[in-house]
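Please study the protein below:
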Amino acid sequence: MRLGGILEEVKALAVEAGAFIATQRESFDLSKVESKHSHDYVSYVDKGCEELVVSRLKEILPEAGFITEEKTVKQEDGKEEYFWVVDPLDGTTNFIHDLAPYCVCIALRNREEILLGVVYEVSRKELYSAAKGMGAYLNDKPIHVSAINDVDQALVMVGYPYNADDWRAFCLNITGRLYGHCASIRSMGSAEAELCYVAAGKIDVYFESFIQPWDVAAGAIIVKEAGGKVSDYDGADAKWESGRQVLATNGLLHEAVLQEMQKAKP
């Protein structure tokens, strides 16, 4: 498979989709926002962007299946060798409130692993990309995770799940353990953007629970190709690839954060 050529096509597509989102933001109609679950929203922009992305991806790799957030296309059924994982607008709540970041996210994977990922952060026009064995990039410049090796100096991003009743105790516990014992704690509302910020060395740790594969697929390979580490809260792959638990770090901090997570579990 010509990963390099496909990556370039996907990067161009992500920028095109980002331009569509930016244009829609200028005349956005808040009254058309729908609620998928409690505090979990979708807009006509999400759906329109997904239709645009899917139509182009079918041209790039016609034989591939799809896993997409808005289900505007038939979802993969286990028969395809390759499939795209697409979040057309990661950070919808941010977008609705005209608050950065929000992103177009596209990953390609096979049955074993993610092969490439592209994340375009619309507000700052930042294009993150990576393909297996080819390194990670921000606007075509190589990026690498940070060299921070002490949690006390780490900038930490925490994602707070929508199903608060199930995760409130853990989130309060882990925040309590880290607050005052790291550089600072932030929450920005876009899983893929926060993964990319780990990859670029802008932050050192990011974790979140109860999200979905399209929230992490593209950003995860970018973190890995930038020298970082991605796992679930037990240090394994079992749950992070499903999006149910995702911890991404610069690698140097991974074990220390995992230890804090084990202590924070109710």
In short: The radius of gyration is 17 Å. Residues 3-142 form a domain with the Fructose-1,6-Bisphosphatase; Chain A, domain 1 fold (CATH 3.30.540.10). Residues 245 and 260 are 15 Å apart (CA to CA). Residues 3-26 form the longest helix (24 residues).
